[in-house]
Write a structure and sequence with these properties.
The protein has 4 helices and 3 strands. With 100 residues, it is of the alpha+beta class. The chain has a domain of 45 residues: YefM-like fold. Strand 2 and strand 3 form a beta hairpin.
Length: 100
């Protein structure tokens, strides 16, 4: 994570905002008198962080995710074709197939 001084942020705020617009995953620490005091992140990054915290705080969802990961590691998976069939869906016209 890049650290910039508060003085630099004041001088270059417009350019810093442009950087966040170009690269939403950017995270920047702001220092005051040599000590990091604030973290800057894009709105997209902030919303993603909130969503992640929401998911991590949902015990049922986390249990389901852990169970799914164990099943995947054990090779207990089904193909997209099987999913579509079980849901009564037809294959989309022009759908791409991964290399087999």
């Amino acid at each position: 994570m890049k650290t910039v001084s508060l003085t630099d942020v004041r001088r270059r705020l417009s350019r810093i905002v442009q950087r966040f617009e170009r690269a939403p995953s950017t995270i920047m620490a702001v220092s005051k008198r040599g000590k990091s005091v604030v973290v800057l992140l894009s709105m997209e990054g902030y919303e993603g962080l909130l969503e992640t915290l929401d998911i991590l705080g949902d015990r049922k969802l986390m249990a389901s995710l852990r169970r799914s990961m164990r099943q995947m590691k054990a090779g207990k998976t089904i193909s997209l074709e099987q999913v579509r069939k079980s849901l009564g869906l037809k294959e989309e016209v022009g759908a791409r197939h991964p290399s087999r």
